[in-house]
Amino acid sequence: ETGVTQTPRHLVMGMTNKKSLKCEQHLGHNAMYWYKQSAKKPLELMFVYNFKEQTENNSVPSRFSPECPNSSHLFLHLHTLQPEDSALYLCASSHLVPGLAGLYNEQFFGPGTRLTVL
Amino acid sequence: AQKITQTQPGMFVQEKEAVTLDCTYDTSDQSYGLFWYKQPSSGEMIFLIYQGSYDEQNATEGRYSLNFQKARKSANLVISASQLGDSAMYFCAMRGMEYGNKLVFGAGTILRVKS
Fold it and tell me: Which positions ≥6 away from A13 have C-beta within 8 Å?
C-alpha cells in the first residue's frame, strides 16, 4: 500500500454509538493531521500530531478523541456524537520541518471517511 | 477576517479551453507558501502545485500554472486545455508563521468541464 489510507470509507452511527476512524500513512512522514470537512464550509483542522505528540487541538469537543500510537497510524475515536458532526473526515500526513524551511511541505491526504450521525 | 478568499463558488469551462480559478489571501508574513489542491467527488485531496512567496517565477506543473501577484496578494490557478477529468472542487491554501505554520484553506471553487 502506498500513500495515505483511511478506513472505513463510509460510516453511519447513532448518537450513542462508539466508533473509531483509522488512518495509516506509508510515506515515512513525521506529522499526521485530522481535518473535518462539512458542507459549504472550509476545511477545518482538528488535530495535529508531530512524532506521535499532539501539538494542536483546535478547540475540538471531547467527544472526538485522537490517538497516535506511532508515526504511521492515527485514530479518531468517536463517542456520543451529534447530527451536526456528520461530515467528511480527512486524514493527512506531511514531513514537518520547523521554521521557514517547513513552509514548503505539501500534505498528502487520504480518501476520507464519510460520517453520518443519525 | 477570512485568510483565504475564493470568490467563485462555481465555474464552467468548455473542454480544451483554459480556465482561471481565483484566490486572494491575507497575511502579514513575508515568507509563506501557497498551495492548490483538487478534490474530486471521491473525496481525496490531491496536491497540484506550490508557490513560495519569494519565488520570482510563477510555478508550473504540467497543465497547471499559478499566476502569482504578490503585491495584490493573489495566487490564481490556471488550468490549460481542460479535460473532463478536471471537474472537481479546487481549494487554495496558505501556510505561514502567522497562522502557526498550519495549512489554511479557502472555501473552494467547483469546476465543471463541459464536453
Answer: A19, A78, A81, A115, A116, A117, A118
B9 has a chain A CB within 8 A of its CB: no
Inter-chain residue contact A112 with B96, CB threshold 8 Å: no
Pairing of strands A10-13, A113-117: parallel
A106–B107 CB contact, under 8 Å = no
- Residue-wise pLDDT for B19-48, tens only, equals 999 999 999 888 899 999 999 998 889 999
pLDDT of residue A4: 95
**Mean pLDDT value across residues A13-20:** 91
Cα A23 from Cα A117, distance rounded (Å)? 20
Amino acid making up residue A53: E
Query: Measured between CB atoms, which of A43, A110, A114 is closest to B105?
Result: A43
Tens of pLDDT, residue by residue over A44-53, are 999 988 877 7
Best probe of the A interface among B45, B49, B102, B109, by most A CBs < 10 A, is B45
B29: distance to nearest CA of chain A, Å?
11
Give how far the C-alpha of residue B78 lies from the chain's centroid of Cα atoms, to the nearest Å. Answer: 8
What does the block give as the cell for B48? 497540484
Q: What is the pLDDT of residue A55?
A: 75
The alpha carbon of residue A43 is apart from the nearest alpha carbon of chain B, in Å, by 6
Angular region, A101: left φ>0, alpha ψ -120 to 50, beta rest? alpha
